Structures are given as C-alpha cells and as structure tokens.
Amino acid sequence: MYFCTYKKRSLNHRREPSINMNTDILVINEEDKTVTGVEDKTITSVTIPEGIEGIGKHAFQGFSNLTSIKLPNGLMRIEWKAFHGCSALTSVTLPDGLSWIGDYAFYSCSNLRTINFPDSMTTIGHGAFLGCKSLASIHIPGNLEKIESSAFSGCTSLTSLHLSEGVTTIEGCAFENCPNLTSIHIPDSVKQLGALAFSYCSGLTSISVGKGNPVYDSRNGCNAIIETSSNVLIAGCENTVIPQGVAQIGEEAFGGCSRLTSIHIPDSVTVIDGGAFVACTNLKTVHIPDSVKSIRMMAFAYCTSLESIIIPESVTYIEGGVFDNCPSLKDVYFKAKNPNEMELAEDFYEGPLDAWTIHVPKESEDEYRNHPIIGKFENIKSE
Question: Is the pTM of this model over 0.85?
Fold first, then answer.
C-alpha cells in the first residue's frame, strides 16, 4: 500500500542557545527570546511570559500531563516538535502575530480538540498536527499561504475544513486519512496541490473548485479535482463522475475511497496511475475503456470486493502489484490478441496461480499459454 514518505528539511541548523537562564521552571534563551525547555515535566499548565518570541524545538515534547498553555502576544514562531506528544492538551489559543508553526509542532496531541489560526499565520509545517485525532474543525485564514505535507494527516475526527481565499499551496498528504471529512472546496488562490493531499478521506461526498481557479477545476460538477492543463484527475470521492476529457487518473486519486462501489472510466483516459483505486474496499465493478494504455503499480490493490476485470486490447503496459490483495477477484479477461506485445511486470500478480481464471481470445490461446508470465496461471480459458 502507498504511504507518505516526504522528506523535509531538518531544523538542526538553528544555533544552540549561547545564554540560558531560568525563569520559574522555564529555560529561556535571552538572545533570541525563545523558550528552549522546562525543568519540570509533570506540570499541568504553564503561562509563557510576555516578550517571548519563540517556543523552541522539543521545548514541551512528551509533557503528557500538560492540559493548558497560555501563549503571549508577540509570539512569532513555534518550532520543531515543540509540543509533540502533549496528549492531555485539549485546546490552544494561538496569538496574533504568530506566523509560523514548525514541523511536527503538535504531532500526536491526541486530545487536541480546538485550534485557532490567526490572520498573521503564513505557514503550517510538515506534520504539524499529524495524528491529532480529536481535532474536529479547521479554519485556514487567507494570509496562510502554505500548508506543508502531512500537516493534518490522521486527524480522524475532522469534519469541517474551511480554506480561505489566499491559500496558495497544499502539499502532498496534507489531509490524508481524515475519514470523517465530508466536503472540500478548493479556492481560486490555490496554485499547487500535492499528490495524495486528500487520499484515504473515505467520508468525502462533495469536492469542488472555485470557478476562477487558473490551475484546477471541477468541471461539470464532477465532484473531483482536475489539473486543468494536463487533464489529470488528482482527487475523487464516492460521488465522482469522471468527465470526458480526463486523460489520466492520478496517483491515489481514489485511494482509500471505501464507499466507492462502481466507477466508469471514459474513453479519453490513457493512464491509470499508481494506487489510483488502492484500498477501495467496496469497489465491485470497473469499466476500463479501450483507450487505456498503461495501468501502473498497485492501481487496484486492496480492492477486496472486486470480482472481475476486463483488460482491453489497448493496454500495453501493466506494472507490479496491480491486483495485490484482491481476494474476491476470480475472473480476469485479457482482450489483447497478441500478449507478447504487452509489457507485463513479473510481479503484477503474486498470489496463488489457481486463484484466477484467465479468459483469453480463442485465436490467441496458444500465445497466452506460452507467455512467460500469464502462462503460469493454472486456469486459462479461451472464448
């Protein structure tokens, strides 16, 4: 199955504090006005004094008893893993003036229910709220231009997301695995939308794009996000109707769409990309048109309800793992008259060789039986 493996910058380049002093239980670097640590890890609440401009990396990491924190006006940055694993923290009020939340800043704050983002915010870092499984709603202000990869991945209670005009970049996996999110609207200002940004959001029923967006569209009310210039469908849901003109089903475009039961692919599509329908566990029927040339890695893997598939004559390239872990799949129909013209990965199927019945054109039975990969199957039936 596909996973988000985005590599991000390290914040270890920050210089270490040259002057430290204790103020009550806080360790403060006076040079850059940053809280760098706390002496007592058992605290349940803390007030950060006025004049502090930053919460340093790891400052409160693992403070599992911390339930509340008061942040001062004038705070400008919250650095890498500052509150990572503060599992008792339920709400945080971010002050006006804060512009940047660093990578993994609130990672695995599993009881964090509410968070506000002031208008001064410009960037939410990689994995900043990853695994905040109690977070229910998010309002992204217009000055916040960039949501980095996996920023809200695994926010499994998230039901409401508002992206304001002004947001320009949503990186890969930003909202991956938010299964209770039901709708997405991409504003006109979004110019960059990373791969898998909304994959495994299985509750999605409505997807739309602002009519003035120059890069993406949801033409004809299709309930999908399409990159306009390339005609690549990059995100879909259970109510998606793939419109004519789409050339490619993008990487994990329907990944984890567990409520999808059937899909019709129009005859403008030439490529079904890697993991396009991975883990669509209720998908039973798929129409692949005689225009598709390439089916890429794990395109239908973990489609546990898929019973049969027709691979049209137009398909010349099939990558590995395309039908991995599809236990209900019993009948595979190859329509190519010459299987030797297909480039078929050796690992396109790695299950029991008697699990499928391979249906082939009658006049090509010998070619299929002698094929180095397809010929290994025990049940080949000509018709």
Answer: yes
